[in-house]
Design a protein that fits this description.
The chain has 613 residues and is mainly beta. The chain folds into 3 domains: 14-84 and 340-452, no CATH class; 102-302, Jelly Rolls (Sandwich); 462-608, Immunoglobulins (Immunoglobulin-like, Sandwich). The protein is built from 5 helices and 40 strands. Strand 36 (492-498) and strand 37 (506-508) form a beta hairpin. Helix 3 (532-540) packs across helix 4.
Length: 613
């Protein structure tokens, strides 16, 4: 198995780097800070606050953003006409409601793909125009031609069935364009035994009507009709919510407009309550929008009856755009659904790739500090809470609050300062106003930070020639890093090695003395690891030898060093030993006191000869 640096959370961002024009780095100092843009897979913009700073930007006008989102619960990305995106509450719907007998959301862009989301009824014909001007969800059905309609098959085992009908509610959202003389919105009607029998919902003379024709049976088996009309005139070019409900035990049929009861009629006489019974042989389909011009959305038949008022245990119509406040009259407490959005765990990464090693050794930034701010709209009564958290160590996107707490920014436009970090995550909670009419909107967010850039990679790595006689060992040498932080406490070098180019099975971080690799061999030990040419030069021109080894590190790698690294660093995987008649590939990196690691040096090949040769 190839050696990999530990990764508990995947890096979810990439970093494009552009150096400041004309910048150079003096030996022994850090290079000038870079200007970078963190790309959240949908376009984060480069917005440097000052030289050396970097900014994460999401949701700027004209650009897509917010693409690295881990979860949206009750919220959605909303695309504006200028191609920007914001985050707002998702409009509520009846998806997954247990009382659904039939539910058509009309979110399918191709009408032929219209399906009953409750999974019971089959659509026989779907002839309408997909309309993005929806009351809920992504789309609505537009009916503006004579041939437009929806036909739904009605087998005997499904509502209304063959026996007495129980409680039910038919509801939908309507936006009329204009009216015919009679505008049939819902029809379940047949002609059997010489009588028309069924249920119709229609608009006539600017009023809504429900007509149960020969649909009710009294105790003697006599048929009766019931007709209800709205008091309120129906307007064009406005969305309205229509509900027709039947309470079987009381024989009450009610008509609601926009959640308000318009009229109620009792299917009863002195002999008692009438039963609603469709003809046992009735196989007529359910037809929607047969002669109706306008939009229709969120059509639903439920097994419950609606009742006026808003009390515990009573059904109410879904007439709000977003989740409203529900008041428990027993405890006098209100409860309201909250939508959330959580980002992936983000880590800025440099675009520098270690030569020939693929993704084995990703170079990443650690930020000295960061300043987070967000911009949001909160209409009266709405609430938006924004949270951030960051860490120098990797963490999972679902890490608990106990392990890594969230910090809330008190208001839009406020700046929150993060301490040194390598990983960052944000979260927002959105709540509509109590009436469910308005949503808060998260427009954009930004994170300004100054990265700790990785030190330069070690240069001119080579195998010291003339020492091939050493048993199961190799002597490597490279240029010392010009970054003083590598030689400071906490800094040093890593030596990677493996059996194939770019695929490293082990990493060495300790020297023979059990200390981080920083200065190579002591002068005494170095004297025993000179080749013949260097020994000759030491006797004749010692100053020249010292100059040639100045700013160079040399280290002996053998199985005793590998064993010491295995025992001293339990976090590393088991390290492979050197064996004769094997070819090994080596590369070196530098890291500073903050743990920021450079890309790899050039790669060298070492052949371990048989013992005694």
């Amino acid at each position: 198995m190839s050696f990999r640096r530990p990764r508990r959370a995947p890096a979810t961002a990439s970093l494009a780097i552009a150096k400041t024009a004309g910048s150079t780095a003096a030996p022994g100092t850090r290079p000038p800070l870079l200007t970078a843009a963190l790309l959240l897979a949908g376009g984060l913009l480069i917005m440097p606050a000052h030289v050396g700073a970097e900014r994460i930007d999401a949701g700027r006008a004209g650009e897509k953003g917010f693409a690295t989102i881990a979860s949206l619960q009750g919220t959605e990305l909303f695309a504006a006409q200028d191609a920007s995106q914001d985050i707002r509450l998702r409009t509520i719907s009846y998806h997954g409601d247990r009382s659904n007998l039939m539910y058509l959301d009309f979110d399918q862009e191709v009408p032929e793909l219209l399906r009953d989301q409750a999974g019971r009824y089959r659509i026989g014909e779907a002839n309408y125009i997909f309309n993005a001007d929806a009351r809920h969800g992504r789309g609505a059905a537009l009916f503006n031609r004579l041939e437009n309609r929806v036909v739904i098959r009605s087998p005997e085992e499904l509502w209304p069935g063959t026996g007495p009908s129980g409680d039910f509610t038919i509801e939908m959202w309507l936006k009329p364009i204009y009216f015919y003389r009679k505008n049939i919105i819902f029809r379940k009607l047949n002609m059997l035994e010489g009588k028309r029998r069924g249920l119709q919902i229609f608009v006539e003379d600017d009023r809504l009507y429900v007509h149960g024709e020969n649909l009710f049976e009294d105790a003697r088996g006599q048929l009766h009709s019931l007709r209800l009309g709205s008091r309120t005139a129906v307007r064009t070019q406005e969305w309205m919510h229509l509900s027709v409900s039947f309470e079987a035990s009381k024989g009450l049929m009610r008509l609601f407009l926009n959640g308000e009861e318009e009229t109620v009629a009792a299917a009863a006489d002195k002999s008692g309550v009438w039963q609603m019974v469709f003809h046992p042989l009735d196989r007529s389909p359910i037809v929607l929008a047969e002669t109706y011009a306008g939009a229709l959305d969120e059509f639903r038949i439920a097994r419950d009856a609606l009742r006026p008022g808003d009390r515990p245990g009573q059904a109410t119509a879904n007439t709000t755009t977003y989740a409203p406040l529900r008041l428990d009259y027993q405890t006098m407490r209100g409860e309201q659904r909250v939508g959330t959005v959580v980002s992936e765990v983000l880590r800025p990464k440099s675009d520098a790739r270690p030569g020939g090693v693929g993704d084995m050794h990703p170079a990443g930034f650690t930020a000295r500090s960061g300043r987070v701010s967000y911009r949001a709209s909160e209409p009266a009564g709405t609430i938006l809470n924004f949270y951030v958290r960051a860490s120098k160590q990797p963490f999972a996107k679902d890490t608990s609050e106990r392990e890594l707490p969230w910090r809330r920014l008190s208001q839009s436009g406020e700046t929150y300062t993060l301490p040194m970090f390598s990983y960052f995550q944000w979260r927002a909670e959105l709540q509509a106003d109590p009436t469910g009419a308005h949503t808060p909107v998260l427009h954009d967010l930004s994170l300004d930070f100054v990265p700790l850039t990785p030190p330069p990679a070690p240069g001119k790595l080579k195998l010291v020639p003339g020492l091939e006689h050493l048993r199961r060992a190799a002597v490597l040498e490279w240029d010392q890093s010009p970054d003083s932080q590598v030689q400071a406490a906490g800094g040093g070098y890593y030596i990677y090695y493996g059996l194939r180019p770019g695929e490293y099975l082990g990493r060495l971080s300790m020297n023979a003395a059990g200390q981080p690799i920083q200065k190579g061999l002591s002068p005494e030990r170095l004297a025993t690891l000179m080749n013949a040419e260097e020994r000759l030069l030491e006797r004749s021109r010692p100053e020249q030898l010292r100059r040639s080894l100045r700013n160079r590190l040399r280290i002996l790698i053998d199985n005793s060093l590998i064993q010491k690294n295995t025992s001293l660093n339990t976090a590393e995987p088991r390290l492979p030993f050197l064996h004769p008649n094997r070819v090994y590939y080596f590369a070196v990196s530098a890291y500073d006191a903050e743990g920021t690691e450079s890309k790899l040096s050039n790669e060298v090949i070492v052949t371990i000869r048989p013992d005694g040769s």
